[in-house]
# Entry
Amino acid sequence: MPTLRSSALALYYSAAEYCAQVWSHSAHTSQVDVQLNSTMRLISVTLHSTPLPWLPMLSNIELPALRRKAATDKLVEKIVKHDSWPIQPDILNPPLLRLTSRKPLWLDLQPVDIKSRWRHNWKSAQVVSSHLVCDPTIRQSATVVSAEPLLHGTGTLWCLQKEMATYRH
# Structure
């Protein structure tokens, strides 16, 4: 599974995130997200009926919107550090917004911590059995650590595996 995840990150996500800072505010990002969601379904071996909030947690890949925001934050940070770049005045002193339909990247310059935003999104989403996972940023293991919880039918890991099995079939 790690090889499939690495391949998907290298092939699909790198292509999807190419110049994402420019097009991330477009109305067509949902079309890219659909393809990335299908890639997460492939990695996590889940069916189409799996709720979308479970996909990033099961595949251990951040949400596409959060990854795009992180890439934009990284670019803005670079621009601010380089005084000689001609784009710096546009970022630090943005021009007036001419068209209300446009959403330039300087409208949202607050840097975002991906992991904390992912946790917040997980807790605020109305997902079935979301109580089984406290922190979606931690990779969920599919192996049983101890056979004792499995024998007695208790334990968080066993419950998580049982619940995940219902989403995978």
In short: Confidence is low (pLDDT under 50) at residues 143-158. Residues 2-127 form one domain.
